[in-house]
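Figure 2 data, in text form.
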Amino acid sequence: MLLEDFQIYNLSMSIGEDVYSLVSKWNYFDKDTIGKQLVRSIDSVAANLSEGLGRYHYKERKNFSYYSRGSLFESITWITKANNRKLIDDEVFHELKSKLDTISVKLNNYIRTIGPK
């Protein structure tokens, strides 16, 4: 599989750019606390998928997919905190949450397919 054809990876890359664009507009304190954590966790979703795809053994691919899922759940926590602290409004929160939920379903389905054929 080519990385460019990997739908979950592409969705993860896209939301990473969306989040980065949002966070870059925050003040220093908010960027330094929630912002950095959010950007790192959301970027880690795609990074772990690509690293797993580049591994030879299916067990490693599965492990990196689990790391990706953990980062995805962490990202949900950070966008929730950002919404609670009025850094993102409800509309943006629900849009991001919906995208993360879609990635979550696709990622869980992908994880189920990894293994010996």
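Caption note: The domain at 3-113 is CATH 1.20.1440.60 (de novo design (two linked rop proteins)).
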